[in-house]
Amino acid sequence: MTGVLPTGEVIDDPAARPPEPHRTVYVVIDGNDDPNLSRRLAALEAPERIVVRPNPVRSANDLVWDVLAGAGKNPAAVRTCRLSIADAWKAATAWITAARVTDILIERAHRLTHREALQLAELADQTNADLWLIWSGGGDPARMCNAIESLGRSERKGAARGRIPFGAPHRPVRAMGGDTFERVLPLPAPAVSLPLNPDEYADPDADWPALPTADFPLFLAACRRQLAGDTFDQLHLAYRTEAQATDAFVRRHRNHLAEGRTGNAFKQALNAYLRDERLGPAASGRLALIRLRAIQASLFIQGVLLRWQSRALGPAAADQLTTWLTPGICRALRATVSTHAAAVTVISLHLTAAPDRFSHLLCRNLDEHGHYLYLPTFPDAAAYLRADWAHEIDRRHQDESPSYAHTTGKTPLPPYAAELLAAHLAHRRADGSGTRRRYFADPKNPTLDASDRALVETIGRTCRRIGVNPFWLHRGMCEVAGIGAGPAPLTDWMAARRLDVVILSDEGPDR
User: Fold this and answer.
1) Would residue 232 count as lying in a domain?
2) Phi-psi sector, 431: left (phi>0), alpha (psi -120 to 50), beta
3) Quick one: pLDDT at residue 13?
Protein backbone atom coordinates (compact mmCIF):
# COMPACT_ATOMS: atom_id res chain seq x y z
CA MET A 1 0.00 0.00 0.00
CA THR A 2 1.33 3.39 -0.95
CA GLY A 3 1.38 6.03 1.76
CA VAL A 4 2.50 9.66 2.10
CA LEU A 5 4.72 10.89 4.90
CA PRO A 6 4.17 14.31 6.55
CA THR A 7 7.16 15.54 4.56
CA GLY A 8 5.37 14.68 1.34
CA GLU A 9 7.53 11.63 0.55
CA VAL A 10 5.66 8.72 -1.01
CA ILE A 11 6.51 5.33 0.46
CA ASP A 12 5.49 1.76 -0.23
CA ASP A 13 5.04 -0.04 3.08
CA PRO A 14 4.38 -3.80 2.66
CA ALA A 15 3.06 -4.00 6.22
CA ALA A 16 0.45 -1.35 5.45
CA ARG A 17 -0.99 -3.23 2.50
CA PRO A 18 -4.46 -4.75 2.94
CA PRO A 19 -4.54 -8.51 3.52
CA GLU A 20 -4.73 -10.64 0.41
CA PRO A 21 -8.20 -12.04 -0.26
CA HIS A 22 -8.80 -15.73 0.11
CA ARG A 23 -8.24 -17.88 -2.95
CA THR A 24 -11.30 -19.21 -4.73
CA VAL A 25 -12.17 -22.85 -4.05
CA TYR A 26 -13.61 -24.74 -7.01
CA VAL A 27 -15.94 -27.68 -6.35
CA VAL A 28 -16.34 -30.00 -9.33
CA ILE A 29 -19.54 -32.04 -9.10
CA ASP A 30 -19.10 -35.56 -10.49
CA GLY A 31 -22.20 -37.39 -9.30
CA ASN A 32 -21.72 -40.35 -11.66
CA ASP A 33 -18.14 -40.99 -10.51
CA ASP A 34 -16.90 -40.93 -14.09
CA PRO A 35 -13.66 -42.95 -14.45
CA ASN A 36 -12.59 -40.65 -17.29
CA LEU A 37 -12.28 -37.85 -14.77
CA SER A 38 -9.68 -39.86 -12.83
CA ARG A 39 -7.72 -40.36 -16.05
CA ARG A 40 -7.98 -36.65 -16.71
CA LEU A 41 -6.55 -35.85 -13.28
CA ALA A 42 -3.60 -38.14 -13.99
CA ALA A 43 -3.01 -36.28 -17.27
CA LEU A 44 -3.23 -32.90 -15.51
CA GLU A 45 -0.59 -33.84 -12.94
CA ALA A 46 2.58 -31.77 -13.45
CA PRO A 47 5.26 -30.00 -11.35
CA GLU A 48 3.10 -26.87 -11.21
CA ARG A 49 -0.14 -28.81 -10.73
CA ILE A 50 -0.36 -31.50 -8.05
CA VAL A 51 -3.08 -34.08 -7.46
CA VAL A 52 -3.75 -35.24 -3.89
CA ARG A 53 -5.41 -38.62 -3.42
CA PRO A 54 -6.48 -38.88 0.24
CA ASN A 55 -6.23 -42.30 1.79
CA PRO A 56 -9.77 -43.55 2.54
CA VAL A 57 -8.50 -45.24 5.74
CA ARG A 58 -6.80 -42.47 7.67
CA SER A 59 -6.86 -40.74 11.01
CA ALA A 60 -7.75 -37.12 11.61
CA ASN A 61 -4.13 -35.97 11.13
CA ASP A 62 -3.11 -38.12 8.16
CA LEU A 63 -4.15 -35.72 5.41
CA VAL A 64 -0.80 -33.90 5.47
CA TRP A 65 1.04 -37.08 4.50
CA ASP A 66 -1.22 -37.49 1.48
CA VAL A 67 -0.50 -33.87 0.52
CA LEU A 68 3.25 -34.50 0.77
CA ALA A 69 2.94 -37.63 -1.36
CA GLY A 70 1.00 -35.63 -3.95
CA ALA A 71 3.78 -33.02 -3.91
CA GLY A 72 6.27 -35.67 -5.05
CA LYS A 73 7.63 -36.90 -1.74
CA ASN A 74 8.46 -40.57 -1.25
CA PRO A 75 5.29 -42.19 0.18
CA ALA A 76 7.38 -44.79 2.01
CA ALA A 77 9.46 -42.11 3.74
CA VAL A 78 6.93 -39.44 4.65
CA ARG A 79 5.98 -41.14 7.92
CA THR A 80 9.59 -41.83 8.94
CA CYS A 81 10.94 -38.28 8.68
CA ARG A 82 10.56 -37.53 12.42
CA LEU A 83 8.31 -34.53 11.85
CA SER A 84 5.34 -33.47 13.90
CA ILE A 85 2.01 -32.77 12.23
CA ALA A 86 2.53 -29.00 12.49
CA ASP A 87 6.05 -29.25 11.01
CA ALA A 88 4.74 -31.52 8.26
CA TRP A 89 2.18 -28.88 7.24
CA LYS A 90 4.95 -26.26 7.24
CA ALA A 91 7.11 -28.52 5.06
CA ALA A 92 4.23 -29.11 2.64
CA THR A 93 3.59 -25.37 2.41
CA ALA A 94 7.28 -24.67 1.80
CA TRP A 95 7.67 -27.31 -0.93
CA ILE A 96 4.52 -26.21 -2.74
CA THR A 97 5.53 -22.55 -2.52
CA ALA A 98 9.03 -23.22 -3.83
CA ALA A 99 7.66 -25.29 -6.73
CA ARG A 100 5.32 -22.40 -7.65
CA VAL A 101 2.31 -24.69 -7.78
CA THR A 102 -0.70 -23.03 -9.37
CA ASP A 103 -3.38 -25.70 -8.81
CA ILE A 104 -4.02 -28.25 -6.06
CA LEU A 105 -6.55 -30.90 -7.12
CA ILE A 106 -8.14 -33.18 -4.50
CA GLU A 107 -9.50 -36.42 -5.90
CA ARG A 108 -12.67 -37.86 -4.28
CA ALA A 109 -13.01 -34.87 -1.99
CA HIS A 110 -16.43 -36.08 -0.74
CA ARG A 111 -14.47 -38.24 1.73
CA LEU A 112 -12.98 -35.19 3.41
CA THR A 113 -14.29 -33.78 6.65
CA HIS A 114 -15.09 -30.09 6.85
CA ARG A 115 -11.98 -29.52 8.98
CA GLU A 116 -9.78 -31.18 6.36
CA ALA A 117 -11.36 -29.11 3.58
CA LEU A 118 -10.61 -25.95 5.57
CA GLN A 119 -7.01 -27.06 6.07
CA LEU A 120 -6.63 -27.52 2.33
CA ALA A 121 -8.20 -24.13 1.66
CA GLU A 122 -5.75 -22.50 4.08
CA LEU A 123 -2.90 -24.32 2.34
CA ALA A 124 -4.07 -22.88 -0.98
CA ASP A 125 -4.17 -19.38 0.55
CA GLN A 126 -0.62 -19.68 1.90
CA THR A 127 0.82 -21.05 -1.35
CA ASN A 128 -1.18 -18.75 -3.65
CA ALA A 129 -2.69 -21.70 -5.52
CA ASP A 130 -6.19 -22.61 -6.64
CA LEU A 131 -7.92 -25.47 -4.82
CA TRP A 132 -10.07 -27.91 -6.81
CA LEU A 133 -12.30 -30.33 -4.87
CA ILE A 134 -13.52 -33.22 -7.03
CA TRP A 135 -16.84 -34.29 -5.48
CA SER A 136 -17.29 -37.82 -6.89
CA GLY A 137 -19.76 -39.33 -4.43
CA GLY A 138 -23.40 -38.99 -3.62
CA GLY A 139 -24.87 -36.53 -1.20
CA ASP A 140 -25.08 -32.79 -1.23
CA PRO A 141 -21.82 -30.77 -1.09
CA ALA A 142 -23.70 -27.70 0.18
CA ARG A 143 -22.65 -28.16 3.82
CA MET A 144 -18.97 -28.43 2.92
CA CYS A 145 -19.25 -25.41 0.60
CA ASN A 146 -20.89 -23.40 3.39
CA ALA A 147 -18.15 -24.38 5.85
CA ILE A 148 -15.42 -23.37 3.38
CA GLU A 149 -17.16 -20.12 2.46
CA SER A 150 -17.75 -19.09 6.06
CA LEU A 151 -14.22 -20.12 7.15
CA GLY A 152 -15.75 -22.74 9.45
CA ARG A 153 -18.06 -20.36 11.30
CA SER A 154 -21.21 -22.17 10.15
CA GLU A 155 -20.01 -25.33 11.95
CA ARG A 156 -19.54 -23.68 15.33
CA LYS A 157 -22.10 -23.83 18.06
CA GLY A 158 -24.49 -20.94 18.26
CA ALA A 159 -24.09 -19.88 14.61
CA ALA A 160 -26.95 -20.13 12.20
CA ARG A 161 -26.10 -23.04 9.96
CA GLY A 162 -25.64 -22.09 6.35
CA ARG A 163 -25.56 -18.35 7.01
CA ILE A 164 -22.58 -16.00 7.00
CA PRO A 165 -22.69 -12.99 9.34
CA PHE A 166 -23.04 -9.68 7.55
CA GLY A 167 -19.71 -7.99 6.89
CA ALA A 168 -17.63 -11.01 7.96
CA PRO A 169 -14.78 -12.11 5.65
CA HIS A 170 -15.48 -15.15 3.56
CA ARG A 171 -13.81 -17.33 0.98
CA PRO A 172 -15.36 -17.48 -2.51
CA VAL A 173 -16.57 -20.93 -3.55
CA ARG A 174 -17.55 -21.82 -7.10
CA ALA A 175 -19.33 -25.05 -8.03
CA MET A 176 -19.22 -26.43 -11.55
CA GLY A 177 -19.88 -29.56 -13.55
CA GLY A 178 -17.46 -31.83 -15.33
CA ASP A 179 -17.90 -30.13 -18.72
CA THR A 180 -17.10 -26.72 -17.24
CA PHE A 181 -14.11 -28.19 -15.44
CA GLU A 182 -12.69 -29.52 -18.71
CA ARG A 183 -13.13 -26.11 -20.30
CA VAL A 184 -11.72 -24.07 -17.41
CA LEU A 185 -8.71 -26.36 -16.78
CA PRO A 186 -7.76 -27.88 -20.16
CA LEU A 187 -5.19 -30.58 -20.65
CA PRO A 188 -1.63 -29.45 -21.41
CA ALA A 189 -0.42 -29.65 -24.97
CA PRO A 190 1.35 -32.94 -25.79
CA ALA A 191 5.12 -32.81 -25.87
CA VAL A 192 6.61 -32.77 -29.35
CA SER A 193 10.00 -34.37 -29.92
CA LEU A 194 11.57 -33.58 -33.27
CA PRO A 195 14.38 -35.87 -34.48
CA LEU A 196 17.68 -34.09 -34.86
CA ASN A 197 20.05 -34.63 -37.71
CA PRO A 198 23.50 -35.88 -36.64
CA ASP A 199 25.14 -32.56 -37.56
CA GLU A 200 22.34 -30.24 -36.41
CA TYR A 201 21.95 -28.68 -32.98
CA ALA A 202 24.69 -30.87 -31.54
CA ASP A 203 26.47 -29.76 -28.41
CA PRO A 204 30.21 -29.98 -29.15
CA ASP A 205 31.05 -29.45 -25.47
CA ALA A 206 29.35 -32.67 -24.39
CA ASP A 207 30.75 -35.10 -27.00
CA TRP A 208 34.54 -35.26 -27.02
CA PRO A 209 36.50 -38.41 -27.92
CA ALA A 210 38.85 -40.15 -25.53
CA LEU A 211 41.64 -37.79 -24.53
CA PRO A 212 45.23 -38.62 -23.58
CA THR A 213 46.25 -38.72 -19.94
CA ALA A 214 49.42 -36.69 -20.44
CA ASP A 215 50.11 -33.86 -18.01
CA PHE A 216 49.59 -30.26 -19.07
CA PRO A 217 53.09 -29.61 -20.57
CA LEU A 218 52.56 -32.41 -23.12
CA PHE A 219 48.77 -32.47 -23.35
CA LEU A 220 48.43 -30.57 -26.64
CA ALA A 221 51.22 -32.56 -28.29
CA ALA A 222 49.62 -35.85 -27.26
CA CYS A 223 46.23 -34.67 -28.55
CA ARG A 224 47.80 -33.70 -31.88
CA ARG A 225 49.19 -37.21 -32.31
CA GLN A 226 46.04 -39.04 -31.14
CA LEU A 227 43.09 -37.04 -32.50
CA ALA A 228 41.90 -36.38 -36.03
CA GLY A 229 42.77 -33.06 -37.62
CA ASP A 230 39.32 -31.41 -37.43
CA THR A 231 38.77 -32.69 -33.89
CA PHE A 232 42.12 -31.30 -32.78
CA ASP A 233 41.29 -27.92 -34.33
CA GLN A 234 38.11 -27.74 -32.24
CA LEU A 235 40.01 -28.82 -29.14
CA HIS A 236 42.73 -26.27 -29.78
CA LEU A 237 40.13 -23.51 -30.11
CA ALA A 238 38.51 -24.49 -26.80
CA TYR A 239 41.98 -24.74 -25.22
CA ARG A 240 43.04 -21.26 -26.33
CA THR A 241 39.73 -19.74 -25.27
CA GLU A 242 40.12 -21.25 -21.81
CA ALA A 243 43.69 -20.04 -21.51
CA GLN A 244 42.62 -16.50 -22.38
CA ALA A 245 39.87 -16.64 -19.73
CA THR A 246 42.45 -17.80 -17.18
CA ASP A 247 44.76 -14.92 -18.08
CA ALA A 248 41.88 -12.52 -17.44
CA PHE A 249 41.24 -14.22 -14.09
CA VAL A 250 44.90 -13.79 -13.06
CA ARG A 251 44.82 -10.12 -14.03
CA ARG A 252 41.81 -9.61 -11.77
CA HIS A 253 43.67 -11.19 -8.85
CA ARG A 254 47.17 -9.88 -9.49
CA ASN A 255 47.28 -8.22 -6.06
CA HIS A 256 46.55 -11.55 -4.37
CA LEU A 257 49.55 -13.13 -6.07
CA ALA A 258 51.78 -10.36 -4.75
CA GLU A 259 50.94 -11.23 -1.13
CA GLY A 260 53.71 -13.83 -0.87
CA ARG A 261 54.35 -17.53 -1.15
CA THR A 262 51.26 -18.59 0.83
CA GLY A 263 48.78 -16.91 -1.52
CA ASN A 264 45.76 -17.87 0.56
CA ALA A 265 43.52 -15.25 -1.01
CA PHE A 266 44.49 -16.37 -4.50
CA LYS A 267 43.85 -20.02 -3.61
CA GLN A 268 40.40 -19.15 -2.33
CA ALA A 269 39.60 -17.22 -5.49
CA LEU A 270 40.90 -20.03 -7.71
CA ASN A 271 38.88 -22.59 -5.76
CA ALA A 272 35.70 -20.59 -6.38
CA TYR A 273 36.65 -19.93 -10.01
CA LEU A 274 37.10 -23.62 -10.81
CA ARG A 275 34.01 -24.68 -8.87
CA ASP A 276 31.53 -22.03 -10.01
CA GLU A 277 32.65 -21.06 -13.50
CA ARG A 278 34.96 -23.53 -15.22
CA LEU A 279 35.23 -27.15 -14.03
CA GLY A 280 32.12 -27.55 -11.90
CA PRO A 281 29.50 -26.59 -14.54
CA ALA A 282 31.33 -28.30 -17.43
CA ALA A 283 29.04 -30.34 -19.69
CA SER A 284 31.21 -33.46 -19.47
CA GLY A 285 34.32 -34.76 -17.77
CA ARG A 286 36.34 -34.61 -20.99
CA LEU A 287 35.51 -30.94 -21.48
CA ALA A 288 36.53 -30.35 -17.86
CA LEU A 289 39.86 -32.08 -18.62
CA ILE A 290 40.50 -29.78 -21.59
CA ARG A 291 39.72 -26.75 -19.47
CA LEU A 292 41.91 -27.97 -16.62
CA ARG A 293 44.95 -28.51 -18.86
CA ALA A 294 44.55 -25.04 -20.36
CA ILE A 295 44.18 -23.48 -16.91
CA GLN A 296 47.27 -25.31 -15.67
CA ALA A 297 49.37 -24.10 -18.61
CA SER A 298 48.17 -20.52 -18.31
CA LEU A 299 48.75 -20.41 -14.54
CA PHE A 300 52.23 -21.94 -14.88
CA ILE A 301 53.31 -19.08 -17.13
CA GLN A 302 52.09 -16.67 -14.43
CA GLY A 303 54.16 -18.37 -11.72
CA VAL A 304 51.44 -20.63 -10.28
CA LEU A 305 51.63 -24.43 -10.34
CA LEU A 306 48.22 -26.16 -10.28
CA ARG A 307 48.81 -29.87 -9.70
CA TRP A 308 46.31 -32.69 -10.24
CA GLN A 309 46.85 -36.19 -8.84
CA SER A 310 44.54 -38.00 -11.23
CA ARG A 311 45.65 -41.51 -10.27
CA ALA A 312 44.09 -41.14 -6.83
CA LEU A 313 40.62 -40.75 -8.43
CA GLY A 314 40.58 -44.01 -10.35
CA PRO A 315 40.25 -44.79 -14.06
CA ALA A 316 37.53 -42.17 -14.82
CA ALA A 317 39.31 -39.32 -13.07
CA ALA A 318 38.08 -36.64 -15.47
CA ASP A 319 34.46 -37.34 -14.52
CA GLN A 320 35.30 -36.38 -10.93
CA LEU A 321 36.23 -32.83 -11.95
CA THR A 322 32.65 -31.70 -12.51
CA THR A 323 30.17 -30.97 -9.73
CA TRP A 324 28.95 -33.87 -7.64
CA LEU A 325 25.54 -32.25 -7.22
CA THR A 326 24.01 -33.74 -10.37
CA PRO A 327 20.38 -33.40 -11.54
CA GLY A 328 19.80 -37.05 -10.58
CA ILE A 329 20.88 -36.39 -6.99
CA CYS A 330 18.63 -33.34 -6.84
CA ARG A 331 15.69 -35.43 -8.07
CA ALA A 332 16.34 -37.88 -5.26
CA LEU A 333 16.61 -35.05 -2.74
CA ARG A 334 13.34 -33.56 -4.01
CA ALA A 335 11.59 -36.67 -2.63
CA THR A 336 12.80 -35.74 0.86
CA VAL A 337 10.12 -34.41 3.18
CA SER A 338 12.36 -32.33 5.43
CA THR A 339 13.43 -29.08 3.76
CA HIS A 340 16.17 -28.78 6.38
CA ALA A 341 17.79 -32.09 5.34
CA ALA A 342 17.53 -31.36 1.62
CA ALA A 343 19.01 -27.85 1.84
CA VAL A 344 21.99 -28.70 4.04
CA THR A 345 22.81 -31.71 1.84
CA VAL A 346 22.68 -29.58 -1.31
CA ILE A 347 25.11 -26.99 0.05
CA SER A 348 27.47 -29.61 1.46
CA LEU A 349 27.62 -31.57 -1.81
CA HIS A 350 27.99 -28.47 -3.95
CA LEU A 351 30.74 -26.87 -1.86
CA THR A 352 32.32 -30.20 -0.81
CA ALA A 353 32.51 -28.79 2.67
CA ALA A 354 31.69 -30.10 6.11
CA PRO A 355 28.73 -28.39 7.81
CA ASP A 356 30.80 -27.16 10.73
CA ARG A 357 31.12 -23.91 8.78
CA PHE A 358 27.45 -23.48 7.88
CA SER A 359 26.44 -21.89 11.20
CA HIS A 360 27.19 -18.38 9.93
CA LEU A 361 24.66 -18.57 7.08
CA LEU A 362 21.63 -16.33 7.54
CA CYS A 363 18.37 -16.27 5.66
CA ARG A 364 19.49 -13.08 3.94
CA ASN A 365 22.52 -14.94 2.52
CA LEU A 366 20.31 -16.87 0.12
CA ASP A 367 18.60 -15.57 -2.97
CA GLU A 368 14.80 -15.63 -2.74
CA HIS A 369 14.59 -18.23 -5.52
CA GLY A 370 17.64 -20.26 -4.48
CA HIS A 371 19.86 -19.36 -7.45
CA TYR A 372 22.68 -17.63 -5.55
CA LEU A 373 24.38 -17.83 -2.19
CA TYR A 374 25.51 -14.49 -0.74
CA LEU A 375 28.25 -14.87 1.81
CA PRO A 376 29.94 -12.78 4.52
CA THR A 377 33.10 -10.83 3.78
CA PHE A 378 34.67 -10.48 7.20
CA PRO A 379 37.81 -12.63 7.52
CA ASP A 380 36.76 -14.81 10.45
CA ALA A 381 34.02 -16.71 8.62
CA ALA A 382 33.59 -18.77 5.46
CA ALA A 383 37.24 -18.86 4.44
CA TYR A 384 36.51 -21.71 2.00
CA LEU A 385 34.09 -19.60 -0.06
CA ARG A 386 34.52 -16.80 -2.57
CA ALA A 387 37.22 -14.26 -1.83
CA ASP A 388 36.60 -11.58 -4.45
CA TRP A 389 33.99 -9.69 -2.43
CA ALA A 390 33.83 -5.92 -2.24
CA HIS A 391 34.41 -4.61 1.28
CA GLU A 392 31.34 -2.63 2.23
CA ILE A 393 31.92 0.62 4.03
CA ASP A 394 28.92 0.63 6.33
CA ARG A 395 29.07 -3.02 7.38
CA ARG A 396 28.57 -3.71 11.05
CA HIS A 397 30.30 -6.74 12.54
CA GLN A 398 27.18 -7.79 14.44
CA ASP A 399 25.28 -8.13 11.17
CA GLU A 400 27.45 -11.17 10.36
CA SER A 401 26.52 -10.88 6.71
CA PRO A 402 26.10 -8.19 4.09
CA SER A 403 22.81 -7.37 2.49
CA TYR A 404 22.19 -8.05 -1.17
CA ALA A 405 22.71 -4.40 -2.07
CA HIS A 406 26.19 -4.35 -0.50
CA THR A 407 27.63 -7.35 -2.33
CA THR A 408 29.27 -7.49 -5.73
CA GLY A 409 30.17 -11.18 -5.69
CA LYS A 410 27.95 -14.19 -5.28
CA THR A 411 28.24 -17.96 -5.48
CA PRO A 412 25.97 -19.34 -8.20
CA LEU A 413 24.13 -22.56 -7.44
CA PRO A 414 22.94 -25.14 -9.99
CA PRO A 415 19.52 -24.19 -11.36
CA TYR A 416 18.15 -27.68 -10.74
CA ALA A 417 18.90 -27.27 -7.01
CA ALA A 418 17.18 -23.90 -6.64
CA GLU A 419 13.83 -25.35 -5.57
CA LEU A 420 15.43 -27.29 -2.71
CA LEU A 421 17.07 -24.21 -1.20
CA ALA A 422 14.08 -21.94 -1.81
CA ALA A 423 11.80 -24.44 -0.07
CA HIS A 424 13.85 -24.32 3.13
CA LEU A 425 13.98 -20.53 2.95
CA ALA A 426 10.17 -20.47 2.72
CA HIS A 427 10.04 -22.85 5.70
CA ARG A 428 12.29 -20.58 7.77
CA ARG A 429 10.25 -17.54 6.81
CA ALA A 430 7.15 -19.39 8.02
CA ASP A 431 8.93 -19.87 11.36
CA GLY A 432 9.35 -16.10 11.61
CA SER A 433 13.07 -16.06 10.89
CA GLY A 434 13.04 -12.81 8.90
CA THR A 435 16.40 -11.96 7.34
CA ARG A 436 18.81 -11.88 10.29
CA ARG A 437 18.08 -15.33 11.74
CA ARG A 438 20.06 -18.45 10.91
CA TYR A 439 19.27 -20.30 7.71
CA PHE A 440 19.83 -23.63 9.49
CA ALA A 441 18.08 -24.00 12.84
CA ASP A 442 17.16 -26.87 15.10
CA PRO A 443 14.21 -28.61 13.36
CA LYS A 444 12.56 -29.37 16.72
CA ASN A 445 13.07 -25.85 18.11
CA PRO A 446 13.45 -23.20 15.37
CA THR A 447 14.52 -20.58 17.92
CA LEU A 448 17.81 -22.46 18.49
CA ASP A 449 20.71 -22.70 16.05
CA ALA A 450 21.48 -26.07 14.52
CA SER A 451 24.54 -27.76 16.01
CA ASP A 452 27.39 -29.00 13.83
CA ARG A 453 26.95 -32.57 15.05
CA ALA A 454 23.24 -32.55 14.18
CA LEU A 455 23.99 -31.21 10.69
CA VAL A 456 26.57 -33.93 10.09
CA GLU A 457 24.09 -36.59 11.17
CA THR A 458 21.40 -35.11 8.94
CA ILE A 459 23.66 -35.04 5.88
CA GLY A 460 24.92 -38.57 6.50
CA ARG A 461 21.43 -39.96 6.94
CA THR A 462 20.16 -38.20 3.81
CA CYS A 463 23.14 -39.29 1.71
CA ARG A 464 22.72 -42.91 2.76
CA ARG A 465 19.10 -42.79 1.64
CA ILE A 466 19.93 -41.45 -1.83
CA GLY A 467 23.03 -43.63 -2.26
CA VAL A 468 25.77 -40.96 -2.05
CA ASN A 469 29.01 -41.41 -0.12
CA PRO A 470 30.45 -38.04 0.99
CA PHE A 471 33.85 -39.22 2.20
CA TRP A 472 34.66 -35.85 3.81
CA LEU A 473 32.00 -36.55 6.48
CA HIS A 474 33.44 -39.83 7.76
CA ARG A 475 33.81 -40.01 11.50
CA GLY A 476 37.19 -41.73 11.20
CA MET A 477 40.39 -40.51 9.59
CA CYS A 478 39.50 -38.72 6.33
CA GLU A 479 41.35 -39.98 3.27
CA VAL A 480 41.91 -36.41 2.09
CA ALA A 481 43.95 -34.38 4.51
CA GLY A 482 42.36 -31.13 5.55
CA ILE A 483 38.79 -31.83 4.45
CA GLY A 484 36.17 -31.56 7.12
CA ALA A 485 38.61 -31.39 10.03
CA GLY A 486 40.45 -28.70 11.93
CA PRO A 487 40.21 -25.04 10.98
CA ALA A 488 38.30 -24.00 7.90
CA PRO A 489 40.24 -25.31 4.87
CA LEU A 490 40.75 -22.90 2.01
CA THR A 491 40.18 -25.24 -0.92
CA ASP A 492 37.85 -28.06 0.07
CA TRP A 493 36.43 -28.35 -3.44
CA MET A 494 39.88 -28.64 -5.03
CA ALA A 495 41.27 -30.95 -2.35
CA ALA A 496 38.43 -33.42 -2.90
CA ARG A 497 39.46 -33.60 -6.57
CA ARG A 498 43.16 -33.90 -5.70
CA LEU A 499 43.97 -30.39 -6.91
CA ASP A 500 46.45 -28.20 -5.07
CA VAL A 501 48.19 -24.88 -5.78
CA VAL A 502 51.81 -23.86 -5.30
CA ILE A 503 52.96 -20.25 -5.73
CA LEU A 504 56.35 -20.54 -7.44
CA SER A 505 57.62 -17.01 -6.84
CA ASP A 506 57.33 -14.47 -4.05
CA GLU A 507 57.39 -11.73 -6.61
CA GLY A 508 54.15 -12.77 -8.36
CA PRO A 509 53.59 -12.83 -12.10
CA ASP A 510 55.93 -9.89 -12.78
CA ARG A 511 59.06 -11.82 -11.88
Assistant:
1) no
2) alpha
3) 40
